[in-house]
Amino acid sequence: MGKGIARTTTQHLQSGRGMTGWATRLRSRRLVRGLACWLALQTAFAAPLASAAGLVASSARVAAPPGTPDATGVGNVPAPSAAVPFDPNAIVQPVLATPTPALAASSVKALGIKTPTTAEPGTLVPGGRRQTLTFADFGALDPLQLRGTDGQNGIAFSVRNDEVVTGAVLHLIYSYSPALLPAISQLKVLVNGEVAATLPVPHEQAGMLVARDVSIDPRFITEFNHLNVQLIGHYTQQCEDPANSSLWATVSNASSLDLTYASLTSKPDLAALPQPFFDRRDVRRLELPFVLPSKPGSETLEAAGIVASWFGALAGYRGALFPAQLDEAPLSGNAVVFATADQRPAGVAIPAISGPTIAVVDRQAPARGKLLLVLGRNEAELKTAAKALGVGQSVLSGESATITQLNELAPRAPYDAPNWLPTNRPVRFGELAEARDLTVSGYDADAVRVNLRVPPDLFMWHTSGAPIDLRYRYTVRPKPDRSSLNISINDGFVQSLPIPAKPASMFDLGRYFSTILPDKTADARRTVHIPPLLLTPRAQLRLHFYYDIPDTGECHGRLLENVVGSIDPNSTIDLSSFPHYMALPDLAAFANSGFPFTRMADLSETAVVLPNDADSSDYSLYLLEMGRMGASTGYPATGVTVTTADQVDQLANKDLMIFGAPGRQPLLQRWAKSMPFSSDGDSRTFELSDIVFKLEDWWHGERGVERAPARADLSLVSSNGAALLTGFESPLQKERSAVAFVSAAGQSDADLSSALLDADVLPQIQGAMAVIHGRSVTITSNGTAYYIGHLSPQEYLRWALSSHPLLLLLGGIFAALIIAALFYRALRSIAARRLRD
């Protein structure tokens, strides 16, 4: 199968970002959960791993026939485990980031690694971890298909800079065609081109799911890696058709890679940031504790929000958690510490502070890890240090840096977030993707993928959609066939452009003469429109070059993969003709892109309202949300304002994020008449409408949000409050928005945090109020509509009259009367003048 192996991780980054793509991920994850149960029976039938040390020792060897010495000369290399039929009734939980004992001395020796006597940079330190990730976690949203006599497919994975792999086991789940001849057919497992194992294809297991363990030599594993499965398939010993449909094998995306790591020491250096606190090679969710003083001030919290949004922008699709710890650091691991001369965490040694300072220091033994220190003599300097880290990290070096001057340049403009498509000019595809990612080759090539993050308030009513000036190059077909360039957005089909053949006669040569190149390719240019309903805030444009495989028949040898498809980087998408106008509240826009807060990339028009007696759970949820804002915009929230309920009246010109549980956040009672939810501490009141009984995708129609009036107000007293997310118009100023995060420390707080980071749950958050129980989301109200943005008078008149036919009729009658009156006066004037004459 195709050549898109190196794109697998990219697909994971991109596919998970589309709103429609999340539905695909949901289906894939359900499949993976069902298939992951193979591990239990596999453990029962395959050669078990007796201990953690035994796992490392056996995993460190190359798969080879029994009795063959490995490359290190230590012992015999075990063969791949015996194939085990897949049993869907076995259930087991995959291992993720499970700590393991220290490496066995024999394993370290077998790998040729010298055990250090002192902790020097680049040497192993005691301890390590183990994790098991499925192919779906690495980005394979669908099973890997292998076709033909030499089909190949796989996944990409990477290793953190501060770790080294000391053991690797591939848990492979696959099936293959009953037509394969076992004597001359096989499956090869390759790691970075090295053969890790060769798997037979016995006829008695053909057509069924098979589970097998493959030990991988960790010396094959580098910083960035490709793990491929190759099918060497034959169905006859005579002449055969390389494209015969009976030549197939399928590798389940529930297959997993079990890796054991050892940690490496490194010297503290600001130039290495964001490492080791965040490493782009790590596909896990970022979890980085923030250490705050016991009573942090507003500017300290603003500084923490800036740093959290910076790390959130780096984490991107992974998501990021920032557990807030007051006055003490975690027992071990990396953390970020905020301190001033007067307010410093008691459990952390802080050096003398001479100004806004950023430093990286090793943790004191026995704790392992590093601390990122953000320091200042006062809160203003602390915030300056945080801004310098967010916008100037690339110029820092050494163990510590003191900021002597930070001059902010021009303020941010609306909708100028680095991650968002500009809406004031055409945008080149070369700005959105690398040039090498815009070219594919082969008959089974993957689609060209371009991520499109667009503001959710683009007004595209009654338009053809966003225009794309598409320029592309294709291989001219030898004769007319079904070859085409298929264009889709997420999972929605847009258009198919046929790929033509060579001119049939000299009379047709004119239209190809200027475009056919020496390599038998031709250029084309088309205008394509993306329908408004498909252009969601997190969209992915997919351009798939489908080349019809010619029927060469048998005895013609292997089919040459000599077809290419390329998208010109100068192709453009233009959103400049669409105004910004949207009906709110709409929690879907907030959940998927942080809108309307992210309208300003630095959140300079956003105020965060915390309870007067805020605790670590409130701070953690606030930092999590700042990380989500940074992931949406790609820019740190350098302009966010943090305040309390008694000072909120001074911030009427800002959009509000309100945090706090009932009884602790007074605004939930004070603004009861403006919200779909209110509370006085004991009782809770919910506004209910008919949307509970509607279909899941009722929310977005041709005209945007479809509103239904509230039907009831329900008040109750409950011993355990659910997690709530509710949006409404700010009572302080028209056309300003507020979103309230209502949860209490404990389960509801955990439910809300998990929902905001779960790509499967986020699409369920819609309307004006969502109640969250675990992974279940219920929409209970759509609120009272208000509008943000502006339309031209002509466009607003068209839009308003389209929804009120009676008003259009009355307007027509009124206009007719006016015109009749004008004609009447004009004719009377002409008649009077004629009579005078």
UniProtKB/TrEMBL annotation:
Predominant location: membrane
Transmembrane segments: 806-827
GO BP terms in the entry: cellulose biosynthetic process; UDP-alpha-D-glucose metabolic process
Pfam families reported for this sequence: BcsB
UniProt similarity note: Belongs to the AcsB/BcsB family.
Known role: Binds the cellulose synthase activator, bis-(3'-5') cyclic diguanylic acid (c-di-GMP).
Annotated protein name in UniProt: Cyclic di-GMP-binding protein
Pathway: Glycan metabolism; bacterial cellulose biosynthesis
Membrane topology, as annotated: Single-pass membrane protein
Xref: Gene3D superfamilies: Galactose-binding domain-like
Entry keywords, A to Z: c-di-GMP, Cell inner membrane, Cell membrane, Cellulose biosynthesis, Membrane, Transmembrane, Transmembrane helix
Cell compartment(s), UniProt: Cell inner membrane
Oligomeric form and interacting partners: Tightly associated with the cellulose synthase catalytic subunit.
GO annotations of cellular component type: plasma membrane
